[in-house]
Amino acid sequence: MRRSLRRLVLPAGLLGLILLLALAAPLLPLADPVRQNIAGRLALPSANFWLGQDEYGRDVLSRILWGARVSLSVALAATIIAAVIGTLLGILGGYFRKFVELVTVRLAEVVLCFPPMLLALLVVTLLGPGAGTLVVSLGILFAPAFACLAYAETLSARALDYVTAQQALGAGPGRILLRTLLPNIAPPLIVQFSLTVASAMVLESGLSFLGLGVVPPSPSWGLMIRGARATMEQAPLLLFWPCLALAGTVLVLNLFCDRLRDALDPRAGGGGPAGFLRRAAALPGPALRKDATPGLLRIRGLTLEITGPRGPVAVVRDVGFSVAPGKTLALVGESGSGKTLTGLAVMGLLPGAVRVASGEILYTSRDGATRDLLRLPEAELRALRGRDLSMVFQDPSSSLNPLLRIGSQVAEALPRAPGRMARVVELFRQVGLPDPEGRARAWPHALSGGQRQRVMIAAAIANHPRLLLADEPTTALDVTVQAQILELLAGLKRSEQGMGMVFVTHNLAVVAQIADRVAVMYAGEVVEEGPVAEVFTAPRHPYTAALIAATPEGEAERLSAIPGAVPQAWAMPAGCRFAPRCSEARPACAQTAPPLQSIGPGRATRCLRWKELA
Amino acid sequence: MNALSPPGISAAPLLRGENLSRSFGGGGWFGRGRPILAVRGVDLHLARGEALGVVGESGCGKSTLGRLLLNLLPPTSGKVVFEGEALDALPAGKLRALRRRMQMVFQDPYGSLDPRRSVGAQIADGLLIHRMADATGAAARVAELLRQTGLEPAHAMRLPHEFSGGQRQRIAIARALATRPDFIVADEPVSALDVSIQAQIVNLLADLRSELGLALLFISHDLHVVRHLCDRVMVMYLGRVVEQGSAAAIFAAPAHPYTRALLEATPSMRHPVTAAPLPGEVPSVANPPSGCPFRTRCPAAESRCAEAMPPLEAHPADASRQLACWRAAELA
Ligand SMILES: Nc1ncnc2c1ncn2[C@@H]1O[C@H](COP(=O)(O)OP(=O)(O)OP(=O)(O)O)[C@@H](O)[C@H]1O
Ligand code: SF4
Ligand code: SF4
Ligand SMILES: [Mg+2]
């Protein structure tokens, strides 16, 4: 919040200055804006007339400032009228729908159909020129845009849970409209306000320029532009000053409203947008590792950082685990524990804000050579992606391009060769899509969630990958469909010889179902790793034990909850990251960060007290 | 029907839903809109202090049913009776006054709180709307509610985005409790939460239920959670109730083929799933199959299942349970 307020200072100051100058025009020692002085006709700027004199020898500076009074007050008054009437109509129409919607919003839409200039001309011709008419006509002109915007925003906000919650509390329509809906639809309206003031000023200038707005000799920027046009060749500066005033004011206003909207957003300043994934910069050093013992995937000391307000923050710290050919490793942990980032790091794709700080990801490819993916040049890594390494995401609906038939989308994963489509159909059959030939020509929206996930899996296994990363592939699905997808993945492991899998999930029961080994993550660290059966029957880390106890299975009368919440990335405890929530914590735990230590064949834990607790 | 209530729970129902149905749309653009039958002919009753679980897969009408019971959506047919008063017959003012006694907790803890108002103000809303307290009284009650839901009174000044998902769900529960309601609809209140936090919220709801004598309609797709919290369960499929009865009995011996499939498909840490998964997916609500809604996926389906809808009838061996299946007697 504070940062966005600071960003508001500059435009607010500029806007204040403009308003102050306009308001103070009568008090300033300015020449009379309408006093003519033929002798000084078209004179250039001078000590007495800082901006020069116009075609009647009037002081340009004085006319700009006095003109600001007229232009700004007409534009602001018209916009305020438009905003109040339009918002009222739109919000009522959107909230009550039915009849009210018909009279308010449809009416506004009819008005919107007229070209603005034409409508303004019509009103001015009917009511005669003058500032008052101008305000009324611009108000009518701009109200419908507010109405339509407020209507659309209300419609979408009305369906939100917190509005329903107000209804459920028994709040009446007035309270809901004023307290809940209005503040929440305000931001786009504020932007609309700034745009409208700007166009009202431009339109005012236009109408005055046509002689239909402010009546001369009163100064207004539009009139000044109109006057200066005739003498454009002799005195181009005369055209420049009112244009500068107009453009400058419009710019300042836009900037102000834009920043005001940001300042009103309660979440302002919090973490930026997730954004696109991009190739993480390769670490320095040789990628080829002759010394390493071949396996399929071995991650060691992987640390990923983001830049926080107080320096770098490790969102994934010292993560390590390994996957053998034909085996499945489950990466399990609560939201924000770094599971997805770890998976993405293997693919060499990370959100823009995240960078690799250290570690190694050793991958042994088909030729038997072991390479460090973190140090591999992008060109070589790209050759692995989609062929050796492939990935399935959580949300099957957002992973498919809605504008492409699913057959062609899967075909894109295959090398260009005749018979590509036949291979797609074969893949669809392999992942159990009903009617594979017909489905290949279907659009994504025609498929159910489970079928879309099958399509994503078909694309992922198209090139017989050696390592499949599946990030919560069943979380968005129903239980019975989840069971189908889990069975499909288990079947693939058998049919795709030697394919290893990293399965990211937060559900321990799914881990038991699908994985051979499990790595439990907490707050960016792997806290325990080992074979699933061993870890689940004899956990060697208090967090794993607590997680198992919290899973609502079995007969226990009461679930055992873990108190507190996962610490935020920038407020990690100094010692053991689990210490504040750990029932076994001792003072020593808060001092030393425990290392991930091997505690037996294929098992590791990150707890200082594992021996005492075993 | 009251025979269903376990001992210790008063027999007079607090709330009754009679033959509730709700459809959406129909007509529509290009004349091809078919009405979506989200809820079809559901009867239910809830005693004071009782917890009823509603389970089923997405689109089975669970959320719609919850909103119908609170009259946040009017039913297309059927009615809801709260303490002997039919909600649809009440004038708007009286209905609003009655809302003090029935509340809702939503699934998405990020969407159910107004991002622009302090959590204290939102918790106090109900108190002020129903004039149950003045500003100072409301502040005291907000502090008490925050403490009751495991938060700190100082949190009242903060905005929702400063809280984690689990904390927000506590705030939503505090808001629902503010007016001391008798009945709460909790629509998947723990589905968006992590396991460890989920346990905190489930325990909180269980405690509040026993301390305050709340009646609870707990909507969930997680059978394990329902089993922990609820006395009775209602299993829904495509807008219909296919099985209902005491939670213990249904979990011990599910009778309807769908309930069985659902239980078998639910992964478990202790007993890995061995049964073959149910084929296919839930059909579209806009175009439900003829006869039994489950017949397109039912391993026990026969030709008669396509002909007519099986009625919800007493379980052949246990009169306190009911299920809708033509083959109930053979399969039991
Ligand atoms: N406002 C609406 N307009 C049109 N259709 C709706 C509306 N609300 C619900 N539906 C439809 O009604 C059916 C039941 O919806 P409901 O939200 O009750 O399901 P649910 O069991 O709660 O699903 P989930 O577990 O995904 O939340 C769905 O097919 C849904 O698409
Ligand atoms: S190191 Fe200490 S605080 Fe950390 S998990 Fe072990 S016992 Fe708990
Ligand atoms: S009625 Fe038929 S189709 Fe429906 S659940 Fe029973 S056996 Fe299956
Ligand atoms: Mg729902």
UniProtKB/TrEMBL annotation, chain A:
The chain crosses the membrane at residues 70-95, 107-128, 134-152, 235-257. One of its GO terms (biological process) is transmembrane transport. Gene3D superfamilies: MetI-like (1.10.3720.10), P-loop containing nucleotide triphosphate hydrolases (3.40.50.300). GO terms for molecular function: ATP binding; ATP hydrolysis activity. Keywords: ATP-binding, Cell membrane, Membrane, Nucleotide-binding, Transmembrane, Transmembrane helix, Transport. Its main location: membrane. PROSITE patterns: ABC_TM1 (PS50928), ABC_TRANSPORTER_1 (PS00211), ABC_TRANSPORTER_2 (PS50893). Residues 297-548 form the ABC transporter domain. Residues 68-257 form the ABC transmembrane type-1 domain. CDD domains: ABC_NikE_OppD_transporters, TM_PBP2. The keyword Heme does not apply. GO terms for cellular component: plasma membrane. The keyword Nucleotide-binding applies. InterPro entries: AAA+_ATPase, ABC_Ni/Peptide_Import, ABC_transporter-like_ATP-bd, ABC_transporter-like_CS, MetI-like, MetI-like_sf, Oligopep_ABC_C, P-loop_NTPase. It is found in: Cell inner membrane; Cell membrane. It is a peripheral membrane protein; Multi-pass membrane protein. Belongs to the binding-protein-dependent transport system permease family. This is Peptide ABC transporter permease. It comes from Teichococcus deserti. The lineage of its organism: Bacteria, Pseudomonadati, Pseudomonadota, Alphaproteobacteria, Acetobacterales.
UniProtKB/TrEMBL annotation, chain B:
It is a peripheral membrane protein. PROSITE patterns: ABC_TRANSPORTER_1, ABC_TRANSPORTER_2. GO terms for cellular component: plasma membrane. Residues 15-263 form the ABC transporter domain. GO terms for molecular function: ATP binding; ATP hydrolysis activity. It is found in: Cell inner membrane. The keyword ATP-binding applies. Keywords: ATP-binding, Nucleotide-binding, Transport. InterPro entries: AAA+_ATPase (IPR003593), ABC_transp_ATP-bind (IPR050319), ABC_transporter-like_ATP-bd (IPR003439), ABC_transporter-like_CS (IPR017871), Oligopep_ABC_C (IPR013563), P-loop_NTPase (IPR027417). Signal peptide: none annotated. Belongs to the ABC transporter superfamily. This is Peptide ABC transporter ATP-binding protein. It comes from Teichococcus deserti.
